[in-house]
Amino acid sequence: MGDIERAVALLRQGELVAFPTETVYGLGADASNPAAVAKIFAAKGRPQDHPLIVHLPGVEHLDRWAREIPEKAYALAEAFWPGPLTLILKRQPNVPDAITGGQDTVGLRVPKHPLALELLKAFEGGIAAPSANRFGHVSPTTAQHVRDELGEGGGSHVAMILDGGPCQVGIESTIVDLTGERTAILRPGMASAFDLGRVLGRMPDTPTGDAPRVSGSLAAHYAPRTPLALLQPDVVIFAVREAMAANQRIGIIAPMACPLSDERIVWRRIAGEPAGFAHDLYALLRELDGLHCARIVVQKPPQSESWRAINDRLQRAVAGSGAG
Predict the structure, then answer these.
(1) Model pTM?
(2) Whole-angstrom distance between the N-terminal and C-terminal Cα of the chain?
(3) CA distance 130 to 133
(4) Lowest-pLDDT choice from 31-35, 124-128, 157-161, 232-236
């Protein structure tokens, strides 16, 4: 039995299978099986009212999970699927409450990773799959990240991990609300407001207070256990000197080269453009989190639309860092 066939069999038995997407690794369960979905919440320590995203084999499965689907949903699906865009739509009555957090909406997407698509097409159904890590922690972008945090096989929550290499995008999908007349981004991702606007014919709106709850929207999320700070370039060097004076190890993520040589400085250079920065960010945060630094510092990215999703993740990571 091949890996895909084994993964499908495990999912049909109600087990959890972690698999790669282009964004991050997902912790998958049969989305139509409430008992299997409950295992996701147990494995992650995830609040029960926090909705999940259902991954589909293709757009032809959309009406199995959603109703009252507007034409703009199909336009966005045609433009971005497979890809890092999640559509929030009115749910079909048979969608389990555990998937939706008790709401009348459901999040759906078709991932752009060959292994994920192979799994979904072989499974012939929807797979609920939040990021394959403990709730609130840095999302995994390699199979080893999942293995380190959740384990695999006997004695662990995860029956199997499909290894598809490092994730191409590196941060979670854009989530867009299509349940009303206006379209709003509820979680920014690498499918930007400008990208969506070109398809919709107008820029997305700002979410209102009654917008649906969605994954990854809490103030503290995506966080390392080591205290994390976002600093301007000139302040980064000050923080390094401060740590050296206190004889502390410090982790740095910045686009520039390390100007100092000292064993207490763990400096990781990152791309100075959004796609490369997003690709490497979570892996570097996880690496530095495991090196027992007193503090992790990330050089603050520009405040422009192309950096919006990255700034969103970093701000939430700062708010949640230092726990555990």
Answers:
(1) 0.95
(2) 40
(3) 9
(4) 232-236
